[in-house]
Amino acid sequence: MTRFFARLLAAFAVLGAAPAMxxxxxxxxxxxxxxxxxxxxxxxxxxxVALRQKIDKxxxxxxxxxxxxxxxxxxxxxxxxxxxxxxxVWPAPTRQPTGPLMNYGYQGEVLLPVPVTAPADAKPxxxxxxxxxxxxxxxxxxxxxEDAVLTxxxxxxxxxxxxxxxxxxxxAKALSDAPTPAAFTSVFAKQGTTLALAITGQALKGADVxxxxxxxFDSTVIDHAKPQVIERGPDxxxxxxxxxxxFQEGDGPKAMAGVLSLxxxxxxxxxxxxxxxxxxxGLGAPPSKAVGGGGGALGLPLAAAFAFLGGLILNLxxxxxxxxxxxxxxxxxxxxxxxxxxxxxxxxxxxxxATFLALAVALIAVxxxxxxxxxxxxxxxxxxxxxxxxxxxxxxLNLSGxxxxxxxxxxxxTGLAGKRGMAGAFFTGALAVVVAAxxxxxxxxxxxGWALTQSAPAAITxxxxxxxxxxxxxxxxxxxxxxxxxxxxxxxxxxxxxKLMAFPMYGAAAWLVWVLTIQAGNTALARIFAAxxxxxxxxxLLGVAQHRRAQGGKPLALAGIGGALAVVAALxxxxxxxxxxxxxxxxAAEGGKANVxxxxxxxxxxxxxxxxxxxxxxxxxxxxxxxxxxNEKVALTSQGVADAFKQTGAVYLKADWTLKDAVIxxxxxxxxxxxxxxxLVYGAKGGEGVILPQILTEGLIVRALKDAQGR
Amino acid sequence: xxxxxxxxxxxxxxxxxAAPVLAAPAVGxxxxxxxxxxxxxxxxxxxxxxxxxxxxxxxxxxxxYVQKHYGAGxxxxxxxxxxxxxxxxxxxxxSAPGKQGYVSPAQAxxxxxxxxAGSTALxxxxxxxxxxxxxxxxxxxxxxxxxxGKLIYMGGVDDKPTADHxxxxxxxxxxxxxxxxxxxxxxxxxxxxxxxGCTIKxxx
Lengths: 711, 204
Hints:
The complex is a heterodimer. Chain A is an alpha+beta fold. Helix content of chain A is 40%, strand content 21%. Chain B has one domain: Glutaredoxin. In chain B, β7 (141-145) and β8 form a beta hairpin.
């Protein structure tokens, strides 16, 4: 069809006998012709004549560096005496992957403009014939060398040339889109088995570099087929490349030129060896776009639906359990008073939504500031973890009956506390979110990963859907008739139940202290325990004061001392800031205990293991991520898994995100994730990693490792 | 962070020590070992030629670049000269079944006769394992392994990366030059060059 039109056009062209005319040639897999920007040329002037290739669907031709195979299009000109033609102005190419190889070229239609200059003594009134012998390799899966001898006649006319209506626009666009040398500073350095190319410049500050790709002019400087890892910096970006053949001899090349493509824009760059400037990195990977990321292709409705489902499932994740215990204790108390239960259900929902909203806004604001943070980021700060540990302890002491918040002992179950209980329910909701935040659930992870790359309203929609899903079971329980009445009638058992439920909260406090020691080392223990003891004393004093007041006393001093002690404890926990952990922290001992030896994750180690033909298991984890810890204790350290690692020769890499880490952040983003856990299994024959579910079982890991061995 | 430092250090050192064997094929390092069936159905291995210089040539009869070298007898001439000098010349086909250049075991028997090749053997790699181990990219793609099993050349046949038959004239043949260096006991002057040609039609 297209070729028919091309021929038809050609026929019309001949009939019209307009100036600057040529005849298209069908060479088999493309139609080639010469097209001119202008209708004529003045003596001594330069115009552009382009080789137009209209390539059959599925086939491609090549850029000046064709990549791993193929061959660039060439034009040999036969021109009248004195006329000259320059080099092709190459448009930025696109990647043409073929199996394990990578080529650079063009599909569809491409214009390859060439400057043509008339001699000063060209005679106006005459018409010259420009003859181009074009040879090109056209490939689909197989390659066919094709060629065409193309001619174009161009009248010589004094004065400014009229633009050619059909082609001046497209050729001008091809010329303006073509990469031109940019005012960037580009340096490269071979770092072990990788090649870092750092590019900085004004135009790159804050630019979207998620599609960045370096097309070298020389085919020997990089391994074209290897992925190019992008890291952003405040002043530009760094691409981590794999060195090519040229680096096998001596020190390798001293200069490297090519095209930096950002997807919609392309720049010509010329890099010299040197130390990469600090402004070219440090901000992690760009947020994943539609390509590459696991959750990248989600739309808003689907992301919101995933978020809602994820929120529902979040209730089943281990990290939320202590809070749910607290909620269950409160729900049981009001089970037989529908209106109170419903009010509290709504207050819990409001608390959840408000906290999600606050977290979302904080997260978006921090990310907009350029910092690389992800979901659960608040637990990457030791003072926050310390503060939360004390809060958990306070809640536990409250449940144990040491002191009361809002409602009095007598109030529970009578309905009188209904109004004041609302605040408690709201607080429970807020606490549940803060503690649940470091957990991601199935469905939730892709939704959040998507949300963080979107506009603020879309992101907030997803976060609210997540909150709705999370709060739904408890909020709805109050509205389903007959459900609450099935719970046992309130009575003295309630007091016991509440005290029992204090223990998951003590557990949560203990867990947070453990997280703190991993973040800030053993020295943090003394501080947090001292703060905990002071807090417990404060709680007891408050309790005593409350008891006296209930008996008609005015224990102002006691309450004052209690309150002051509580403030001291809280302050001691969060200020001054915690130091770095020492080399041999308790976490190191933790690693040695595991059945499966692991190494700390780095992209280089992953690449090395893949190059060695080994399957690789990557565990993205954090001490504060309870789901991660449960998976490690239940599934990852089992004998079956250890045996599977041995049998398959798989390498176990652990990416610990307990503290902020830009590299890990970047890897998570690459897989469309904003939080942990994330489990990836890379096949022995390389390629992309397969994402495992967030709840692991022994069988699942063993199967995944065996699959990976043959993949 | 929860990194067992002494362990991580030990692991890193092991990795560095092991790198030469594990990494992508490189000149000066051991060539990846392999076994493959030849045209007669016999299993051949790189190891059996230890002590001899071995040339590896990836080919695909449907590829215009291969046709340039075979059409004019250029590749056959190289093969015969090399074999005459005691060099082992293994021609490999990594095209997957159904793809361009694939040769069935039956066709492999007549391959030498139909092409007039002077290779020591034609080796079949339909699964592409050998090609991938060598990171062979194009047809032709050439490698030379020295007597001790180390790679001493990898790259193109010559310095004219085109399918134009006329380009053979005046081309600098890298393989002939490298074999000449070996014969004269010199280190190979051009040990790495850009391979050029068609993409190897690997199995998906």
